[in-house]
Design brief:
The structure is a homotetramer of 286-residue chains.
Chain A: E1 6-14, H1 19-29, E2 33-42, E3 47-55, H2 66-77, E4 80-85, E5 91-96, H3 101-111, E6 118-124, H4 130-135, E7 140-142, H5 150-163, E8 168-171, H6 180-185, E9 190-194, H7 206-213, E10 217-224, E11 234-241, H8 248-271, E12 275-278, E13 281-284
Parallel strand pairs in A: 5-6, 5-8, 6-7, 8-9
Antiparallel strand pairs in A: 1-3, 1-4, 2-3, 9-10, 10-11, 12-13
């Protein structure tokens, strides 16, 4: 699929007769061949969601004019439209603190071609993952965060992210809470992994909370970051059985395999443009 | 959803530009509002699959003329088309032997409205489930099967099924192997549950086989019946952990919860017309 | 296993050298053959837990003198001891409201011999499950509950439970909150199923809460009832994937299969005397 | 746990009254404090299995004399005994071919302290993982295998393994079939991961087989290697849902996360001495 020259269109709109027809007619008229089309209607809100991908090989509109050609349709149907060209791999920066299992997993999956994106930087408030970034020849920004310097550090981070033209950010166990100002710059474009089955055990030390409550399943959640802590739209969740035999350190060891799995799942869905956000929930197409 | 007057169209065709457009244009032109549309392209075979459901409230073609109106399109695009009207609940007969947990589960889910179908008969080669059929006021056909009478019994069953205008058959732990002649009458319309993770442990006594092999997961598979035993297109599969602590009878007890779950899942997908069969596999839409 | 004449001893004690030895020596000296022995040490509390089951065929102490023979040991080691004779099937009463899927599941598993207990009564605040109780020839107590009569109804229920010598109570989707006074009479002996992955979505309408939060897994939890709502020791939990495609009613349908599974799992563990409670958690032996 | 000076005893024996007593009396008499004790009786074979771990801090027998002190007991009860001192971390060699995800996962879990073993060498028939071994400062043996040289290569491998005093071998996606002579040297001490839910899809190209069969769950199995290909005692198995949407490459990507998880689970159980083998099955204690 990596080599196909294709366009992906994400659509949110009030539901209305003829929506699918209008879009498919546009693609057909300009000689695009549909590769995937998925739609969803949220009946409680009368909202329409669609992801449609088509082959651009014989498409008669140049890539950079597709959106303007669609503009009249967008206006008439009151659509929210996003267009992506598949060959433009999204640019990401990974933020990490000391715990490196998610970073390792992302880097190797990326190297193996399972995550078609461009990693342009690794940011950390600790130096411990520098050698890993070096191994993968990635720029590493060591930026320690203290209470008094936090705002200043975030400004510096944002400046670099902007300069690197980063499309989205992955928090791979980054243990600093980002400010609302920072988050506002990347709405639905910061993916975090929280080490619990949200909304259970939000906030600090979720494994300790889970262990203390005596749950029988340990969980992990990937979600977009919003300005309410651990409350953003959930992208994926997974659990694994635990028992009285498992010490806190075994809760953590089991959970870390989940974190890796759930985070790379969410990143993959994001870069395949399969996620739509509405009402603090997600539509995640298969 | 039960009250919406809607049509469901299942399409298989060689992939070609304009397929989605052609269908959606047809629906739009006749004032249908699309409720669901899912498509899948099997790239290895260049095959196109689609399920599309639309509201018939304002549709300008009478239900019984839709197919003939679509005929020219069908011919030109070489489509395999099936049309269903949602309010026509499919008619089913359940076949069962002695073990009744799947039958019980189906009957109660049906009673609760979770399985929108018409159960028109229960067939069994044992009398033990008669009282259950009685409780639900269902005709019960007790037809014991012996080697020498098998062909004759099947003829009698087929006659009744035909008279009852049965659309599809559920084998809810029916322990008789149906003849190829019988199966041919209901292609992709007989759903069986096999108590293993197929293709492991096909044939007789799958729990005994699994126990003896020392597997760590017990499984269950729902599939359409073909004339090769336990080899038909798989609709759904599920597993549950087992350990050395589990005796054979515990393998069975755990597996039976899976059987119920997997069979009712498959039946629900079938009656929602969400399954397409090709190359001995299934497309099962969400 | 049902026919073995065996004793089960559950032990909680402060951890100390020689505990296992002392118990196994006692059994060996009196010619018991150990069938199962499982122990657990909670290191954070220095607590010792054990379940040991032995064959009584050649045991030299009569069943009803075992505890008194163990008394000196119990005192010297500061043990909390519970003794059960396997052939004495525990007596249970099932409480249910309108939703009957858990009740159906329990009754059929019980009939099939998978739940070796005596069901002595079904209590409900609605009349709808009476015919089901009748089918299984079980006494049915229809006791509607209103705010002003609640205390009085509970007194009546407790009187019947006492008269019926009920050992433990199953809340199979009983939608009334029991008073602390009621619960105090059956400590760690009332099993409830809550239709969420606790501690997420405790309280009312958990499916609605889960749907609204946009979780990607729907869950179910069986736990012992304590006087804090939905906060008692967790016995078992299970989850199933859901997606944006699932309406609230599909959340419920999927969740109900989990509820059945998790509740019958917990009941089975309870009647096999495999659960020990401490610090608001459970030890659940395999 | 890593710092506790403890002994682990694994016992297989014909079941007999007094087995547990005899062992616990021995430990108690010599002032050992039991940390864990788990036993299992296989009733179909009348076999007794036990794992018992005790603190050696105050134990009155030196580590290297424990087995000889137990010798009379062993003889009288016809036991198969294995003794391990926890602080003696087992020595392992990892075999790998080109696909490196399992190797990466093992190395990082090992580095993080989750797998308390000594990795003393990495063997490969390809050079591609050399730099990874270098990063972790591990000796790397590049030994290409061809039909005519296979016996010779195995002799060289065995010589090195012997010299390095390797206790067990991990096949982390090593795509060569070992000879029966090689396997005989490490009975129940070679752990392999097979990328399917065995016994389904044994042999070559399991993902291709699974994809072609149209299964709805992709699986992975860790097992001890015996001289029948993919037929050894199963240690762990896990599955993940797949659908018609998943291409073969997505089957592989999903399965690889399972492989990592299942293999590291099996390795951890092995080094914690929690696995007993009998009748081509395993007892895996929690």
């Amino acid at each position: 699929m990596g080599d196909v020259h294709s366009a992906i269109l994400l659509i949110c709109a009030p539901d209305k007769e003829g929506l699918v027809y209008t879009i498919t007619e546009f693609i057909y008229r300009h000689h695009g061949n549909i590769l995937h089309a998925e739609q969803h209607i949220d009946e409680t809100r009368n909202s329409f969601f669609m992801r449609i991908e088509w082959d651009l090989s014989n498409f008669t509109i140049p890539d950079d004019e597709i959106l303007s050609e669609l503009e009249p349709t967008r206006l008439s149907l009151n659509m929210d439209l996003k267009l992506y060209i598949r060959s433009h791999r999204p640019r990401t920066a990974i933020f990490v603190s000391r715990t490196d299992h998610c970073l390792v997993d992302l880097l190797y999956k990326w190297k193996n071609g399972d995550l078609p994106m461009q990693i342009v930087a690794v940011f950390s408030n600790h130096e411990s993952t520098k050698s890993l970034a070096d191994t993968f020849q990635l720029p590493f920004y060591y930026m320690p965060v203290f209470k008094e310097s936090k705002a200043q550090v975030e400004q510096a981070q944002l400046a670099i992210l902007s300069q690197l033209q980063v499309d989205f950010i992955i928090l791979a166990r980054y243990m600093q809470v980002l400010s609302p100002e920072f988050i506002l710059r990347y709405p639905s474009r910061i993916i975090n992994v929280h080490h619990s089955f949200l909304p259970a055990f939000s906030g600090a030390k979720p494994y300790e909370q889970a262990f203390s409550r005596g749950v029988k399943l340990v969980g992990s959640t990937a979600h977009y970051v919003t300005d309410v802590l651990d409350d953003g739209p959930i992208i994926g969740q997974q659990v694994m059985p635990v028992s009285h035999q498992d010490s806190l350190s075994e809760f953590i060891a089991k959970g870390q395999d989940l974190e890796k799995h759930v985070l790379s799942y969410a990143v993959k869905k994001h870069i395949e443009r399969k996620i739509l956000v509405f009402a603090n929930k997600t539509v995640v197409f298969d």
